[in-house]
Amino acid sequence: MTQLEKNTRILQELLRLYPDAKPALHFDNPYQLLVAVILSAQCTDVKVNLVTPALFAAYPNAAALAAAAPEEIEPFIKTCGLYHNKAKNLVLTGKALVDHFGGEVPADHDALESLPGVGRKTANVVMSCAFGEDAIAVDTHVFRVTNRLGLADAPDVLHTEKQLMDNIPKDQWSRAHHWLIFHGRRVCHARKPECETCTLHDLCDYANGNPKGKK
């Protein structure tokens, strides 16, 4: 089996397993998604979804964030972890959106990365989920699962993203991102992956003892 054939079979099985995979964060517009993804750093989507309804009610747009003080935002997001830094970045992001983008979230990757608290992964999520652009956001689940499966063989998230862009057809990038997250949460756990029952077992480097897959 060639690597291309293997990659194709992996993607076909992920689609079969998770045909309805979608973002776990709750949002109604690009602003809400951007805020939610910033809050999700080192925090579960479940916890973020618990705090965002009240946060969005109090700060419904970038202008409202820009006018706030970090200490005012902190009580809303305290359970998300790193809340001091996240509150500061949310205010600064609100100000940057107002000052440079008319209060709207820009549909441009580089512009998104210029915002405080926004890195490449966050920008990719926003471009994909808010604006429908093909993108692969590599979080801890995607990094772990793809390197175990052999879709990538990379030491860090940036090189993993570049390899996945080569190994996954562009029109599947965004969907594959969600498939891989679902598989990481449900089967390919960090500490104890369920290799024995995983339907990708025969295609997986990690499950078949390949050291390169043991990330």
Account of the 3D structure:
The model has no long low-confidence stretch (mean pLDDT 95). The chain contains 11 helices and no strands. It is an all-alpha fold and 215 residues long. The protein has helices spanning 3-17, 30-39, 45-58, 62-66, 70-77, 83-101, 109-113, 120-129, 140-149, 157-167, 173-186. The radius of gyration is 18 Å and the shape is elongated.
Radius of gyration: 18 Å
Q: What is the average per-residue confidence, as pLDDT, rounded to a whole number?
A: 95
Count the E strands: 0
Unreliable sequence segments: none
The amount of beta strand, in percent, is under 5%
Order of helices and strands: HHHHHHHHHHH
Given the C-alpha coordinates, what overall shape results?
A: elongated
Approximately how much helix is present in the residues?
55-70%
The helix/strand class is mainly alpha
Tally of DSSP helical segments: 11
Distance between the termini: 23 Å
Largest sheet: none
Keywords summarizing the entry:
215 residues; mainly alpha; 11 helices
Brief summary of the model shown:
By secondary structure, the chain is mostly helical. Helices cover 56% and strands 0% of the residues.
Map the helices and strands.
Layout: H1 3-17, H2 30-39, H3 45-58, H4 62-66, H5 70-77, H6 83-101, H7 109-113, H8 120-129, H9 140-149, H10 157-167, H11 173-186
Helix pairs in contact: 1-11, 2-8, 5-6, 9-10, 9-11
